[in-house]
Amino acid sequence: MEFSDHKAIYLQIAEYVCEHILLKEWKDEDRIPSVRELAVTLEVNPNTVMRTYELLQSKNIINNKRGIGFFVAEDSISKVKEYRKTTFIEDELPNVFRNLYLLNIDFKELQSSYQVFIEQNFRS
């Protein structure tokens, strides 16, 4: 995994875990990699992965079953979407709005670009 400088590594790992859940690679009640396993895979400090897992536990996306490991929580997809939506609205959308304003892009133009994006990437 390539990490970028614009966001804390533990948050980028959280996105990685959430993406696995959204892509249904890790399903509700599935065991996920241990802190050490994921740290080795991603080549990061185990404390960084632990910080990620603590964040995701606080959002009820994963659960810790003591002595067994970490597991994807029930109804995880809706919880991931809620978490990612909140993060997007609070952290990324202000920058999008700023660029729309600075570049004088109108919402109609944005809407047509969005439709093209959906058609090219998600409709078969």
TrEMBL record:
A Pfam family per the record: GntR
GO molecular-function term, one example from the UniProt record: DNA-binding transcription factor activity
Keywords: DNA-binding, Transcription, Transcription regulation
SMART domains: HTH_GNTR
Residue ranges constituting the HTH gntR-type domain according to the UniProt record: 7-75
InterPro entries to which the protein is assigned, alphabetical: Tscrpt_reg_HTH_GntR, WH-like_DNA-bd_sf, WH_DNA-bd_sf
Listed name of the protein: Transcriptional regulator, GntR family
Species this chain originates from: Arcticibacter svalbardensis MN12-7
